[in-house]
């Protein structure tokens, strides 16, 4: 972790010190077509309008992600929904980005680790991932995320990886240790929303997913902060760009314009 890193309540997987390329990706709304926590909040929590207003407050800096996200999840619990119920709801409704399986297979064949870096909760991600890509691949993909505490009465709450950070999970801490290596790999990061702001400026190549629903908060942040990035609509569009860099056909500056 970096010198000023927030204390982590959860362990990190070992670094892939011998790899030339690493893919780190947000989960919700990036690898999936819909953010699972948004889906729960909109349908069984306090609703889309309040959730969207909260996201815009985070983007504007008037609230932080940790506190805004906690409010979203608390509204689901307050409405009486158990964690197991949420898991089943997501397994039945969350779908995979149409190009991700091919993208993951290509990375695997080319010895490029794919690591999920999420502000969601690992048990929910594993439950959905196993249904979408199969148990074998789901078990192999590393997940760096938050966790959950389930109480005896059935209520539950998120267990933040970095509770002292306004991000709850400061995603830069999954990236910076790679940058500190004597021979750092080229780091690709994929994201879409306010939870990815902490990671945005630290990747070598930042891919920002565009959404038809207009909730393009990471793109708005990158434009405002003048952070170079590549827009993509699904992983089938991103794959040729990653391939061109890995195969040495294009430089990063030629891809990230």
UniProtKB/TrEMBL annotation:
<dbReference type="InterPro" id="IPR023214">
    <property type="entry name" value="HAD_sf"/>
</dbReference>
<dbReference type="InterPro" id="IPR006384">
    <property type="entry name" value="HAD_hydro_PyrdxlP_Pase-like"/>
</dbReference>
<dbReference type="GO" id="GO:0016791">
    <property type="term" value="F:phosphatase activity"/>
</dbReference>
<dbReference type="Pfam" id="PF12710">
    <property type="entry name" value="HAD"/>
</dbReference>
<protein>
    <submittedName>
        <fullName>Uncharacterized protein</fullName>
    </submittedName>
</protein>
<keyword id="KW-0378">Hydrolase</keyword>
<dbReference type="InterPro" id="IPR050849">
    <property type="entry name" value="HAD-like_hydrolase_phosphatase"/>
</dbReference>
<dbReference type="InterPro" id="IPR036412">
    <property type="entry name" value="HAD-like_sf"/>
</dbReference>
């Amino acid at each position: 972790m970096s010198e000023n890193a927030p204390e982590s309540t959860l362990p990190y997987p070992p670094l892939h010190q011998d790899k030339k390329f690493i893919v780190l990706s947000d989960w919700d709304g990036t690898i999936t077509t819909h953010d699972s926590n948004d889906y729960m909040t909109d349908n069984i929590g306090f609703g889309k309008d309040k959730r969207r207003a909260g996201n815009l407050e985070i983007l504007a800096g008037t609230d932080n992600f940790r506190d805004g996200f906690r409010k979203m999840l608390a509204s689901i619990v307050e409405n009486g929904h158990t964690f197991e119920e949420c898991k089943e709801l997501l397994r039945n409704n969350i779908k995979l980005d149409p190009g991700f399986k091919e993208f993951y297979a290509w990375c695997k064949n080319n010895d490029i680790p794919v690591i999920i870096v999420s502000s969601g909760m690992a048990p929910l991600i594993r439950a959905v991932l196993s249904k979408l890509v199969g148990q074998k691949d789901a078990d192999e993909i590393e997940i760096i995320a938050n966790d959950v505490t389930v109480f005896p009465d059935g209520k539950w709450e998120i267990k933040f990886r970095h509770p002292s950070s306004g991000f709850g999970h400061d995603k830069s801490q999954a990236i910076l240790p790679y940058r500190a290596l004597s021979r750092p790999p080229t780091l690709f990061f994929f994201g879409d929303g306010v939870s990815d702001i902490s990671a945005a400026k630290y990747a070598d190549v930042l891919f920002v997913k565009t959404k038809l629903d207009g909730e393009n908060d990471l793109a708005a942040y990158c434009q405002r902060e003048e952070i170079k990035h590549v827009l993509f609509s699904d992983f089938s569009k991103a794959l040729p760009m990653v391939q061109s860099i890995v195969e040495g056909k294009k430089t990063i500056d030629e891809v990230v314009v």
